[in-house]
Amino acid sequence: MLVLVADTDPTGRKLVRKIVERCPGQEVVGEADDLHAAASVARDVHADAIVLASAMLTDGRTDVGDLVHRTDAAVILTAISGTGAAVWSGLSGGASGYLLRDRLANDLPQALIAAEAGGAFVSPPLTRQMIGYMADRLVDEEAGVSAASIADLLLPRERETLLRLADGQSTEEIAAIMSVTTATVRAYVSRILRKLGLRSRGEAIALAYRSRFYSPAV
């Protein structure tokens, strides 16, 4: 994949570049030090993924959603620390990953692989925080969305696809388990997003958690 590195800190950009360049099949094609530049450069170099420092965001959901929309690139966020709210905000905006900076050497290669396969990756220490936060968001602006209403909107294979996405499975894994092609899985995902009025897989996964359509075994 072609990767753009975005961080206001030159040292941070250098660290990410070093890790990406060690990953087979990954290539750093540019750097940026603000959001506007990240979007512009990503379009110019046709980046497949943007590794972005979360400190550059003003509103995680809005900023990530705008960046994904403008570049059509997978966005992987990095942070010194994180909370369930921060992770949810980024993923619901369409991010394909949320990583702790002190785990980048281990987690960034995995996140790039997941993003390339159409999935998402969150640093393990943040996963339980994210799940807890989503469970607590039952009474909010989207409280009217229930597991039953999602089930009513989706066909059986679409429901199964959404459950598997929420479980962290990649496009290839879902295709193998469901005995269909990856193109068919992508078609299911497109229909899920359209029916639920969502913009990205991240939003679909977040909604599956919030509505309790998907209940992880933790």
Q: Beta fraction of the residues?
A: 5-15%
Total beta strand runs: 6
User: Could you name the CATH homologous superfamily of the largest domain?
Assistant: Response regulator
**Which strand order do you get reading across the main beta sheet?**
2-1-3-4-5-6
The run of helices and strands is: EHEHEHEHEHEHHHHHH
Q: Mean pLDDT, rounded to whole units?
A: 86
Number of domains: 2
CATH class of the largest domain: Alpha Beta
Distance between the termini: 33 Å
What is the helix content?
55-70%
Multimerization status: single chain
For the sheet with most strands, the description reads: 6 strands, parallel
Protein structure class: alpha/beta
Outline the low-pLDDT stretches: 138-142
Count of helical regions: 11
Question: Any guess at the CATH architecture of the largest domain?
Answer: 3-Layer(aba) Sandwich
Q: Tell me the CATH topology of the largest domain.
A: Rossmann fold
Can you characterise this structure?
The protein has 218 residues and is an alpha/beta fold. The chain has 2 domains: 2-133, Response regulator (Rossmann fold, 3-Layer(aba) Sandwich), CATH 3.40.50; 140-210, Arc Repressor Mutant, subunit A (Orthogonal Bundle), CATH 1.10.10.10. It has 11 helices and 6 strands. The protein has helices at 10-21, 35-45, 60-71, 84-92, 104-116, 124-136, 147-153, 156-166, 171-178, 182-196, 201-210; strands at residues 2-6, 27-32, 49-53, 74-79, 97-100, 121-122. Strands 2-1-3-4-5-6 form a 6-stranded parallel sheet, sandwiched between helices. Helix 1 links the parallel strand 1 (2-6) and strand 2 (27-32). Helix 4 packs across helix 6, helix 4 crosses helix 11 and helix 8 (156-166) packs across helix 10 (182-196).
